[in-house]
Amino acid sequence: MDWNAALELTIATKGAEPYKSRLRELFPLVITPEQMELRGWTAVRALPYLDANAKEQLHEAVKKYMKDSEIKLAETPFGVPPSLGTWGGSDAVVQMAIRMYFLHKAFPDLVGPEHTLRAVNYILGTHPVSSTSYVAGVGTVSKMKTYSNNRGDNAYIPGAVVPGYIIIKPDFPESLDDFGFLWFEHEAVVAGSANWVVAGNAAEAIVREKK
């Protein structure tokens, strides 16, 4: 049983065995520097089912993770993971918003709310090439032509999230607004939209807390 299964089954069964024991067994393995960004951050959801010193161990792991992350995020003026591959990187930014929200709720002394808000603002238009929101129908100007969830060419589905800009080698960033056939810039998939629902709600929760 891997970490994700053990975590969800432990939560679903309110700490039943053998899931909780497996969770405790895997905990030290997922909070390593190599695992923190992928799975380790989800350990905050496991804290109610772990030993008393688990939160202290996770606190130290998050402290190191944030120190390393800040260095990477400072490499661009937007403070989010840059799109450097052959596919637009909006999903990595949305995942950052979610990850940072959960870490902020568990360890506000280490992770500020600005990380989630910065990521959400990026998706909604504070990014290279244009100020077009990558979420269809959200924002004053949004991506309206996509290769969308229903595989419709130039389709419009409210809430669909596109990958965003890519770098045409060597250094030209591109994200066309009026052409939906470049799937690496404009394909909207179900997973991306679902992740956005979580990220958008996280940002709203933070804003409401500030009022």
Taken from the alpha-carbon principal axes, the silhouette is globular
Portion of residues in helices?
A: 40-55%
Largest sheet: 2 strands, antiparallel
Give helix and strand order, one letter per element, not per position: HHHHHEEHH
Domain tally: 2
Characterization of the model:
The protein is an all-alpha fold and 211 residues long. It has two domains: 1-74, no CATH class; 79-211, no CATH class. Helices cover 45% and strands 3% of the residues. It is built from seven helices and two strands. The chain has a two-stranded antiparallel sheet with strand order 1-2. Strand 1 (166-168) and strand 2 (172-174) form a beta hairpin. The radius of gyration is 19 Å and the shape is globular.
Q: Any key phrases for this structure?
A:
45% helix, mainly alpha, 2 domains, globular, 2 strands, 211 residues, two-stranded antiparallel sheet
